[in-house]
Design a protein that fits this description.
single chain, two-stranded antiparallel sheet, flat, eight-stranded mixed sheet, 17% strand, alpha/beta, 2-enoyl-CoA Hydratase, Chain A, domain 1
Length: 291
């Protein structure tokens, strides 16, 4: 019985070692085989409230050596400043550190934060009727003071500083508070303007001060002033990306989608806020085009 037990252990160990050897051989062969050069497609759609999912896709672009270029499809009116800046920073890293060209394809709208995340692109495409521009900053405050009074609702606030409840919807904003918020918005607007000048400065045909007042442009108007480079659709952007990356022939396009949580996979639905801002917070500074 002891001999059979030892024999079984020897056989099992031998099979395990053979399995490891074959696995290692397979990985080695795979590393030596030529890989197909790819163009990654990442979509930014709707209001930009969080950056996590987009950043996850952009990380794959950085790590996958077979991905030689990125096409960013933008169909967004913008959103939270912090989220837009996170995406912008990662795109700069892909272009400058990983040396992978980025081509933006603007859809129906790529305004405010949608324009902001497009700025690091090597080439920006838009359709003639795309709505873009809207270089500006907005902070919104609800005023339910009169409604609360009619309902007999009274709110008492205990705060540690005079600006702590600056967006309190149950009272009017003071002139001093309004000026304080304007100073904050001007600083965030300057960051937007600096990003435009940094990325489009040599292509921009007008002064940044002329267009940084929140106005919107059609894709054709944006081309005339240098906010975008070419007019064309998504396929044109893919072809441009392949050309910039030196890919011969028709490129292999891989669309990178964020991993959905298991619950959403099982239910098969997405739960999104109907509001044009992050419903998890009550305040925010936005690069956002409001219709």
């Amino acid at each position: 019985m002891g001999f059979l037990k030892r024999l079984f252990c020897w056989v099992a160990s031998a099979f395990f070692l053979i399995f490891l050897a074959l696995m290692g051989l397979g990985l080695w062969i795979k590393s030596k085989l030529p890989t197909t050069d790819k163009v990654a497609l990442v979509r930014i759609e709707g209001v930009i409230n969080r950056a996590d999912e987009i950043l996850s896709s952009l990380k794959k672009v950085e790590e996958d050596r077979s991905i030689k270029a990125l096409v960013l499809r933008v169909n967004s009116p913008g959103g939270a400043v912090g989220a837009a800046q996170e995406i912008y920073t990662e795109l700069l890293r892909i272009k400058n550190e990983y040396k992978k060209p980025i081509v933006v394809s603007m859809g129906n709208v790529a305004a405010s934060g949608g324009l902001y995340v497009s700025l690091p692109a090597t080439v920006i495409y838009a359709e003639g009727g795309t709505i873009t521009g809207s270089i500006g900053v907005i902070v919104q405050k609800l005023d339910v003071k009169e409604l609360a009074a009619k309902l007999g609702v009274k709110v008492e606030v205990v705060k540690t500083g005079k600006y702590k409840d600056i967006l309190n919807p149950f009272r009017e904003m003071t002139p001093e508070e309004r000026e304080y918020l304007l100073r904050l918005e001007r600083d965030v607007l300057e960051q937007f303007k600096e990003a435009v000048v940094k990325n489009r400065g040599d292509k921009l045909k007008v002064s940044i001060e002329e267009i940084a007042d929140g106005r919107i442009f059609s894709g054709r108007q944006a081309l005339e002033i240098g906010l975008v480079d070419k007019l064309g659709n998504l396929q044109d952007a893919v072809a441009e990306a392949a050309k910039l990356a030196g890919i011969k022939g028709k490129p292999t396009v891989v669309e990178l989608k964020p991993e959905r949580p298991l619950f959403k996979k099982l239910v098969g639905a997405e739960f999104k806020s109907p509001l044009p801002f992050d419903a998890a917070t009550t305040v925010g500074v936005y690069y956002l085009l409001l219709w």
